[in-house]
C-alpha cells in the first residue's frame, strides 16, 4: 500500500483541502485486505470497506494503471467499480463490486493495476473561519489473473533469480522473475558473512526485472552471500525466506 504523505493542496470551500497517501490506520475508512486478486473466470470481485471512525465518510473509488497522481476522471484501467461514490456511516461497512470490462489484456501473464479509495471527511459544522480538511487516499494493488497460467503464485518468490549489480550510486539487488505471476516484497536484504545490507521492498512483475538499491554497500562483497527477503502472498501475509545469490 502506498504511504507517502502529501500529494497536493488546493483551496476549497474557504479552507485548505489536502489530498494525501496514508496508511489505513490514518484513514477512517479502511480497505479489507492489502491487495485484490481478480481471477479472469470471475464475473466480479467484491471489496469490503469499513468506516472505523465516529463520523460519516464520503468515499470515491477508482482503478488506475499505475499513475500515483491519477484522479477518478482519469481512470484508465479496464475495471468498473460500483458504487464509485458512496457515503459510509460511522462504524458501518460498504461493499464495492469490481467488474472487468473485457478490454484486451495479456492472457499469458498477470496484469497489475491499482485500486484507489479516497476518504473525504465531512465539512465542519461551522465554517466561520478558515479550516483545514484532510482527505486520505489509500492505494492497493489489483492483480488480474488470466486462466491457465503455469504454476502457482505462491511459488513465484522462490523462482526469482537474484544478482548483484552496480547502479552508479553503489550496488543493487536485481530480481529476474521468469514466472507468469508477479512477486511483491516488504523488504529485501543482502547477507554477507553475517552482515546485512538492507533495501526497500517493491514488486517484480511477471516475466519482468526490478532492482532494489542497497544501503551502505560501496564495493562488491567477498565471501559467502545470500539474499533474504520478506514476500507477500495473495492474502497479504508476509513470509520470510532466504536464497543464494546467483553471482
From TrEMBL:
Superkingdom of the source species: Bacteria
Domain Pili assembly chaperone N-terminal, residue spans: 29-150
Keyword Chaperone: yes
Gene Ontology terms: cellular component: outer membrane-bounded periplasmic space
Signal sequence coordinates: none
Residues covered by the Pili assembly chaperone C-terminal domain: 176-238
Subcellular location: Periplasm
Any GO BP: cell wall organization
Keywords annotated in UniProt: Chaperone, Fimbrium biogenesis, Periplasm, Signal
InterPro entries: Ig-like_fold (IPR013783), PapD-like_sf (IPR008962), Periplasmic_pilus_chap (IPR050643), Pili_assmbl_chap_C_dom_sf (IPR036316), Pili_assmbl_chaperone_bac (IPR001829), Pili_assmbl_chaperone_C (IPR016148), Pili_assmbl_chaperone_N (IPR016147)
Keyword Transport listed: no
Family: Belongs to the periplasmic pilus chaperone family.
PANTHER family: FIMBRIAL CHAPERONE YADV-RELATED (PTHR30251:SF2), PILUS ASSEMBLY CHAPERONE (PTHR30251)
Protein name, as recorded: Chaperone protein EcpD
